[in-house]
Amino acid sequence: MNNDKFFWHVFGSLLIIFYASFLLLSSMYQFGAFNTLVTAFFGIYGVIHLALALANYNTKEFSHFFLGVIGIISFSILYCSNILTSIRGCSFFFFLFALLTCFIKLKKADYFHDRKNILWRMELSFLFLYFLATILFCVNLVQKDSVLTLLFGFYILFIGSLEFMEAMVFNLKGKLK
User: Fold this and answer.
1) pTM for the full model?
2) SS3 content of the chain, % helix, strand, coil (to 5)
3) Per-residue model confidence (pLDDT) at position 173
């Protein structure tokens, strides 16, 4: 991973972590409705990954483009519907988003064709933890809005941390070759 790509990947993950911190603070001060904060996150997530795809256009890696498209489609669905009002719809939405994200990140990890390397196992463990966090978040969707915002903030903090660790792993992978 070259330095520019590494910088933009870390910058995007830090923006996600910053938004998670904002969510954690907003749950303490009852700032914003849960639906609005979730919809805004998916818009920000999509824009961040589309910007990363544009910044890394010459590398022929399309995982950020697909993550950005999924984020923008998720934003559009949440903005135009009221899927977050029902617990089943919200759980299905987050589960489907995590499933698609895991497929894209798994394809990105498989792109390097080094399944015998320990970094491959680290990437798989990150994906497993991400999917497990999604399932645990979906189980707790019966709480009131302030608790949901707090849980979503921790969930987004976890996603941002995994994005940051993924950047570190791919940077280390590039230095090991």
Assistant:
1) 0.80
2) 85, 0, 15
3) 67
